[in-house]
């Protein structure tokens, strides 16, 4: 998907019970989740749990490009519902479940740099 500068959606998810996964491949996207703003730049991703109150906005001067995967949440009796979370491929935390507070977490392990060739 693409959003032009100044564009966005105040209620991007029209269906109840649907979770979303956002992955930014170009530009920067402002995700407002439960009243808190989080900027997802290139390489940033976030999981938005079902029935969350959220919106998207492009506050930058360039088009933002991202993938948006939607899936109806299927509850399991023995597994608690997922919380919002997000990270950046650099390894820094963007959304910290369960509080969804924006904070750096340098003590977390870095992701693998490059997958091994097959």
Description:
The C terminus is likely disordered. The N and C termini lie far apart (about 30 Å). By secondary structure, the chain is mostly beta strands. The chain has a single domain, classed as Jelly Rolls (Sandwich). About 0% of the residues lie in helices and about 40% in strands. The strands form two sheets. Strands 1-8-3-6-9-10 form a six-stranded antiparallel sheet, with no helix packed on it. A four-stranded antiparallel sheet has the order 2-7-4-5, with no helix packed on it. It is elongated. The relative contact order is 0.25.
Major β-sheet, in short? 6 strands, antiparallel
What is the gyration radius calculated from CA atoms?
A: 15 Å
**Distance separating the two termini:** 30 Å
Structural class: mainly beta
Proportion of residues in helical segments: under 10%
Give a concise summary.
The chain is an all-beta fold and 118 residues long.
Keywords:
six-stranded antiparallel β-sheet; 118 residues; elongated; mainly beta; Jelly Rolls
Question: How would you summarize the topology of this molecule?
Answer:
Layout: E1 2-3, E2 8-9, E3 18-26, E4 28-33, E5 36-41, E6 44-48, E7 54-57, E8 64-72, E9 85-88, E10 93-95
Antiparallel strand pairs: 1-8, 2-7, 3-6, 3-8, 4-5, 4-7, 6-9, 9-10
